Amino acid sequence: MALRPQRTFRRRQVESSDSDSDGAKEQSAEEPASAGGRTEGAERPRGARSARGRGRVWASSRRSPGAAPRGDGGAECRTAELSTDEEEGTHTLTESKGDRSPSSDSSCSLEEKDLSPIVEIPDAAFIQAARRKRELARTPGDYISLDVIHSCSTSDCKRSNEEDPESDPDDHEKRILFTPKPQTLRQRMAEETSIRSEESSEESQEDENQDIWEQQQMRKAVRMLAGQNTDLSHSSKSQILKKFDTSISFPPVNLEIIKKQLNNRLTLLQESHRSHQREYEKYEQDIKSSKTAIQNLESASDHAQNYRFYRGMKSYVENIIDCLNEKIVSIVELESSMYTLLLKRSEALLKRRQDELKCESSYLQQLSRKDETSANGSLAVDEKDQRILEEIEARRMQRRQARELSGSCDHQEGMSSDDELSPAEMTNFHKCQGDILQDCKKVFEDVHDDFCNVQNILLKFQQWREKFPDSYYEAFVGFCLPKLLSPLIRVQLLDWNPLKMDSIGLDKMPWFTAITEFMESSMEDIGKEDGSDKKILSAVINKTVVPRLTDFVETIWDPLSTSQTRSLTVHCRVAFEQFASENEVSKNKQDLLKSIVARMKKSIEDDIFIPLYPKSSEEGKMSPHSKFQERQFWGALKLFRNILLWNGLLPDDTLQDLGLGKLLNRYLIISLTNAVPGPDVVKKCSQIAACLPERWFENSAMRTSIPQLENFIKFLLQSAQKLSSSEFRNEVSEIILILVKVKALTQAESLREEHPLEPLTAQSTGV
């Protein structure tokens, strides 16, 4: 208890000295110091709590090697020393160690208060030695000691850097603090005080700056007002001077000048007024026209409805085009399948006819050669040829029986078309054809009638033409419809065979009727009709029907078949009638005509064969040679007649060259010349004359026939000479009638004069 007052007194001394040296003591106690480049972790100083609890202030420090301890009476007291060593850069504080008495503690604290500001500055030799020691410590390079701990406070490092800028530690020597360093209560209080003082100083500085700025602005305003007043005073003075300056002289003024200026001014104002008046009138006119346009638009009927119609028509056209683009692939495939089926059938029949002709001709040649017969008089025939001959005879027997049942007894052998198929082949053909037609019905089964029916499509466009004819004709719909309708018409023509007599005519087809009605309704409005709708049917036939006819002619048509030729000519006449009113020549039509001529030429060269046998082989009309020759002649005559069926479709020069030049003069006349004159020859000549078109001989002024019939007329005259001296004298009159028919009137009259016969009638003579 006796020590209580001393401990309290000593605490007051320490507290009284805190303002002078406490901060330095705590900082020096926390910072380590080393002399030889080695640093150790400094112990954390014990704070105020331990000082109060134990009544003592404990501090520990490391002394520099060159510093001497300071004290009185053998007792160690704490001193603050500043080391100038650039490597350490720290303040070394020394304290006494061991137990102290209260008296010594108080005296020591008083000495600390008195000696705390004392600082020893090292000399140049000490600094040079420290610098050399640092350089030696850096020499190992890659070696870093694990026992060395660098503890350098921020403030000491700054001071050392300021003293020696060259002693900055390298990057790897710097200590990186990852957590803030704990602060004492006094440090925190000092930091808060400094922050408040800085804020107050900043606010005071801002207030001062604001006051200075306001004063500057006030000075500027005062100077500007002073300058304006000065300018005004100067200008007023100058005006006053000018006003009272009598030295200035003005030009003389009189009434004429004033009047002239006023007139000029008045003229300018009048011109400006007139221009404004014109603009005003123009604006009034624009206003009136705008009001009229508004009234017309308001009174116009159903613009929204018209817009809906055009939009619906546009959508309809786009949909039908998309539909047809999707279906055209199937249509082309079906057309190809049907075409292939018909082509195979046609090629099979043609090959069979040519094989049978070769087989029968070779058989008859073998009959003509006696040396090829066997000992018993029978002909050695190959089994294949024998089978072919039996099939030929069986088909002829069937046709004969069919003619007898129908009552056509005047039919000649060889005039029939040998195009019959076996029951198995017919069944297979009809089955394949039925499958194709069944697939054809499925093409548009998922399509509405408005998009696949020709009549419904034309009704849509007819409504457009009736409601808005101007836009209809401006869109050139008449030129687009043929291409639009072509896929639909091709589907309907898939089952159409122009080579069959029972096939429906083009003018009876639904699409033909619908297009005709559409064209007739367009002709009622003659004022706005531009002629495009009148060409729809001809364009459809030209782009759709004529190419299909061309395909049939080139590969499927058999010119030797009278039924096919008649049916084909009928359909061609219907198609060509649509081109009669057009002056322009259709390329597709020309291609069709060229194909017809080429196919008939090929048939004449490949199918016509009339053999000439010796008289011994032709004895008797029932001999095989005579029958074969007769059949071939009548077959050639049938082709002659089929060629002349194209009269009116092909040019006359082409027909005369084909029928008369290549067939009549080359084959028929030669065969007739080799025959025995008689009623059969006259009958054949009469059949030839009956095939000739009457149009070739319509000119009443003609006295001679056409040049291609010259050989035929000569043969008729020779036959008449031979028959006049025989028992067939009455056949001469028939020859004269033939001459009259072909307009060989001069030859007919001379023949009648040489052979007195019954007088010819005026109709026969053509007079």
Automatic annotation (TrEMBL):
Its main location: nucleus. Residues 455-668 form the GCF C-terminal domain. It comes from the Eukaryota. One of its GO terms (cellular component) is U2-type post-mRNA release spliceosomal complex. InterPro entries: GCFC2-like (IPR012890), GCFC_dom (IPR022783). Keywords: Coiled coil, Nucleus. One of its GO terms (molecular function) is DNA binding. Residues 1-119, 154-210 are annotated as: Disordered. It is found in: Nucleus. Belongs to the GCF family. This is GC-rich sequence DNA binding factor 2.
